[in-house]
Amino acid sequence: MLSLNPKTLSPSPFNLRSFLIPKKPSISSPSLCVNSTTCCQPNQITERGILFDTGDTFFRHESATGRDLGVLSAALYKQSKGQLRVLDAMCGCGIRSLRYLVESKADFVLANDANESHRRVILDNLAQVERLEGEKKRWVVTHCEANRILTDCYLQRDYFDYIDLDSFGSDSSFFLRAAFSSLKLDGLVYVTSTDGYSSGGHRPFHSLSAFGAYVRPMPYANELGLRILIGGAVREASVLGYRVTPLFSYYSYHGPVFRGLLRMNRGKLPEKRDYGFICYCNRCGNSQAVSWDELGQIRCPCNNSTKDAASLVVSGPLWTGPLHSGAYIMEMLNLAE
């Protein structure tokens, strides 16, 4: 039985600022500046040395670290596989798409945003990169609902190496099945949730419909937010005959924002110890992971009676396995340095 520490998610084993090397801003090189964002004109911002326009789109400079991690993981994929095709399903102003092109050296980026009124600002930002390389397109802008563009890619057998789902609330869970269908085997999907109410156990029926997990209030809501997001992805992938492996997980207080990078391959559900339930005792504060075949037999070390068992609350099913791959994070560190 796996014991869980009843605290919020532990800090990342690496500090992003510690391995970003300041360079002179240049659109032709993947420069990463320690001072991530500075304002230029009313709607213009510089992030990691790249100037772009936010227009009237929704943009948070606090999300720069999440974008850094996405760009770094995409660059690592390009280095290891020799190619990189990215689908940015909800691109907003297009800054992530632009950074994938410039810093991750993506061969092709499909930048999609359902709001067609954002087209001008997206085109202006991506125009910093030549659209054509010989006869091949480096980037394309579309305006479709995320599920539709993902499904269209699947129907056309146009598969991607890397899919970024930067959605609002718990919407990412509704796009996962279509995303896995349009992803190459061994490809990466970068998922998002900003649903702090569900992770805090305040909307258990909403978390049940969105992530397949009934979540009760527990003192480590930030970690639960990541675990229900990954657990929902595990469930959706298994329907299609795939298994997913978390490579890293990231939580940020603004929003709040929960992000996870998942690798997809063929396979079945993980071992029962990695997809199950978490039990918390309101009496003594003990936490433990509970497998499916242990349901109905849950006891806390602080009591043995049926009456005292009322202090126990259970959340799940969700991901109870590792939130990070240590080996993968070391590869990210090595590349960043």
Automatic annotation (TrEMBL):
Pfam families: TRM. This is tRNA (Guanine(26)-N(2))-dimethyltransferase. Gene3D superfamilies: Vaccinia Virus protein VP39. The gene is LOC107904851. Keywords: Methyltransferase, RNA-binding, S-adenosyl-L-methionine, Transferase, tRNA processing, tRNA-binding. Belongs to the class I-like SAM-binding methyltransferase superfamily. Trm1 family. InterPro entries: SAM-dependent_MTases_sf, Trm1.
